[in-house]
UniProtKB/TrEMBL annotation:
UniProt cross-references to PANTHER family, sorted A to Z: CARBOXYLIC ACID TRANSPORTER PROTEIN HOMOLOG
A single cellular component GO annotation: plasma membrane
InterPro entries documented for this protein: MFS_dom (IPR020846), MFS_sugar_transport-like (IPR005828), MFS_trans_sf (IPR036259), Sugar_transporter_CS (IPR005829)
Gene3D superfamilies per record: MFS general substrate transporter like domains (1.20.1250.20)
Protein source organism: Edaphobacter aggregans
Protein name: SHS family lactate transporter-like MFS transporter
Length: 423
């Protein structure tokens, strides 16, 4: 298997660095999805409605671009490794503090702060991982790194499934609060990074060059240097808006769609969602690896467009088996395209702003598309009697074409040599 072959080719330092970056993104997503699986329990504890608690998700998403900008700036100035360590500690502390929130207001504030910390992880982890790994394997590891988000979702779901029903405490030991306490364990990753992970060789080379030229040991990064590349940045924001619309459009209301339009019980919904997530993981790794041979742009466009013929099976099937197959194939294509993103947008980003550009563009695109689920539900309610089939099929069509079109407008930067960059 290509992934195993690539892993065996890495040095011990490269393997440890990639593992730490993958776990940072996985555990960040794990902490985020703990909120989504506990919405009902949290609402009951605070004696409010589920929509009121769901605002915590919105506040998290709103603050993620702030974190991408803040931690990206720190990573450019002080290095990827120490910034990621601080980032991991920050989201772990905010997650733990959420477990002790005495009121709804305090909880919402803490989730907004968690959003700041969460927003920084993807860009800094991707920069550290991809700058450390050999250029020839970026596509493969890009696919695996991106699917850390799916692994985090599965981990949160598994904890909720296996542990939550057995928790019967009260007060600060209410079931959801205990899960959030468990969610603070990622802080241990920071201690691992302190002793087992090294700084990005690209960042260190740039630092050495500055010192040799009589400059400061710190990067000269400033927001003016960021502004110098604004046309490229706007393109990346448009690209990530298309990608996040494609992903959210096929995922956010999918469990509701299965329950409402197909009248499936929770166990069958859970089964199909798990199968879909397996498809997502395999798609990200497979298409990421293929992008090394066929190019980033070509594989993104092919993967995105291949989602279109899957729509009838995905949306209009009637048996559990065919719905599961449709879910598997749809997410294989959607996340197959998305799995190439870390490599592609890092390669499109200028070296002096690589820790800021990709993460900030990613999170802004995520923010712009964050209300897609609300729009889909509203359209379904107004025009289709609440049925989601046509709306979700339309979202996939629009998302697929948007991703393919915007990607085609950009350039191919597969395997660019970063070792000669300066900052």
């Amino acid at each position: 298997m290509a992934l195993l072959r690539e892993l065996r080719s890495l040095t011990a330092v490269q393997r440890r660095t990639f593992a730490a970056c993958f776990l940072a993104w996985t555990l960040d997503a794990f902490d985020f999805f703990l909120l989504t699986v506990c919405l009902k329990a949290i609402a009951a504890d605070f004696r409010v409605s589920i929509p009121q608690i769901a605002e915590a998700i919105f506040f998290t998403l709103v603050m993620r671009p702030v974190g991408a900008l803040l931690f990206g700036y720190l990573a450019e100035r002080f290095g990827r490794r120490p910034t990621l360590m601080i980032n991991v500690l920050a989201f772990s502390i905010c997650g733990l503090a959420s477990a002790f929130a005495p009121t709804l207001t305090a909880f919402l504030v803490l989730r907004a702060l968690f959003g700041v910390a969460m927003g920084g992880v993807w860009g800094v982890a991707a920069a550290l991982a991809l700058e450390t790994l050999p250029a020839s394997g970026r596509g493969t590891f890009s696919g695996l790194l991106q699917e850390g988000y799916v692994f985090g979702n599965l981990l949160a779901g598994a904890l909720f499934w296996l542990v939550f029903p057995h928790l019967h405490g009260a007060g600060i030991f209410t079931a959801w609060r205990v899960l959030f306490m468990i969610g603070a364990l990622p802080a241990l990753l920071a201690f691992y990074m302190q002793f087992r992970v090294e700084e990005s060789p690209v960042w260190l080379a740039a630092k050495a060059k500055r010192l040799a030229e009589g400059g400061s040991h710190r990067s000269s990064f400033s927001f003016q240097s960021f502004a110098d590349y604004w046309p490229r940045f706007l393109f990346l924001v448009a690209l990530m808006t298309a990608f996040n619309s494609f992903s959210h459009g096929s995922q956010d209301l999918y469990p509701t769609f299965l329950q409402k339009d197909h009248a499936l019980d929770p166990s069958n919904v859970g089964f199909i969602v798990v199968i879909s997530n397996i498809g997502a993981i395999l798609g990200g790794i497979t298409c990421g690896t293929a992008s090394e041979r066929f190019g980033r742009k070509r594989m993104i466009i092919i993967s995105a467009l291949m989602a279109l013929p899957v729509i009838p099976l995905w949306a209009w099937s009637h048996s559990i088996a065919s719905l599961a197959l449709g879910g598997f194939l749809m997410q294989f294509m959607v996340q197959g395209a998305f799995g190439i993103v870390p490599a592609h947008i890092n390669e499109l980003s200028p070296g002096p702003v690589r820790a800021v550009f990709p993460g900030f563009a990613y999170q802004l695109g995520n923010l712009i598309s964050s209300r897609n689920g609300v729009f889909q539900a509203a359209i379904a309610a107004r025009y289709f009697g609440g049925m989601l089939t046509y709306v979700m099929a339309g979202a996939v069509v629009i998302g697929s074409l948007a991703v393919a079109t915007v990607t085609a407008l950009g350039r191919e930067a597969r395997g660019e040599d970063w070792s000669k960059e300066s900052a």
